[in-house]
Write a structure and sequence with these properties.
single chain, 214 residues, alpha+beta, 4-stranded antiparallel beta sheet, 59% helix, rod-shaped
Length: 214
């Protein structure tokens, strides 16, 4: 975990596990509250863990939180963020039936948060792919319209005005909303294309009939 910068933490959080920099973590404050232990004892337990420096650096991040004292005086006090592995190592020392139940709840919370993060990462990955494909499709469409109108005239492309009709991905919309709108645009383009093809076939048929009569 990142340990270079200190961070302020509000004591009104009640979630066992939260997402931080794309990782599921908990804090020494939440652990102390949930396991009904003094926070100073949890800090002492963390600092007394006999794990390697590398493990500590990856799984325990020292931070500070604001404690409001009398007369609106605010004081910075130490705390830790910890990963699932860090929590597991720490919780090994918490024994008893009640502690076991609390550990089960924590494990479930970590699983739920990590599944949520995995889902979000998959969605973001899919969104990047869709945005790239939409951009390439739009550029190809515009290039085809440009070249087609140079060769066949301004009527090429039917109702699609070159330079104005674009297929774009709007990052302010959900991916589902974007896809519905984009597929709707493509559907209308296909309809226009089929219409123009039908008109061309009919025109060619009439022209051939006229030529044959001559």
């Amino acid at each position: 975990m990142e340990t270079k910068s200190l961070e302020l933490w509000s004591t009104d959080r009640i979630d066992l596990v939260e997402a931080k920099n794309g990782q599921a973590v908990t804090s020494s404050l939440v652990v102390a509250e949930y396991f009904r232990r003094a926070h100073k004892d949890v800090l002492k337990a963390i600092r007394g863990l006999e794990c390697s420096a590398n493990f500590t650096e990856r799984n325990f991040a020292p931070c500070v939180y604001i404690n409001e004292l009398c007369n609106n005086v605010k004081k910075e006090l130490p705390m830790y963020y910890m990963t699932r592995d860090g929590f597991t190592f720490l919780a090994m020392g918490f024994t008893g039936k009640v502690a076991a139940q609390f550990k089960e709840a924590y494990i479930a919370a970590f699983n739920e948060m990590e599944e949520k993060l995995r889902s979000e990462r998959c969605t973001k990955c899919a969104e990047r792919i869709v945005r790239k494909q939409v951009k390439e499709f739009s550029l190809s469409l515009q290039e085809n319209l440009k070249n087609g109108r140079k060769k066949h005239g301004s009527t090429y492309g039917g109702l699609i005005p070159y330079g104005k009709e674009e297929v774009v991905y709007n990052p302010k919309e959900s991916m589902e909303s974007n896809l519905k709108r984009i597929f709707g645009q493509v559907r209308e383009m296909c309809k226009d294309g089929f219409l123009m093809s039908a008109l061309a076939v009919e025109t060619n048929k009439v022209l051939q009939e006229f030529i044959n009569k001559e």
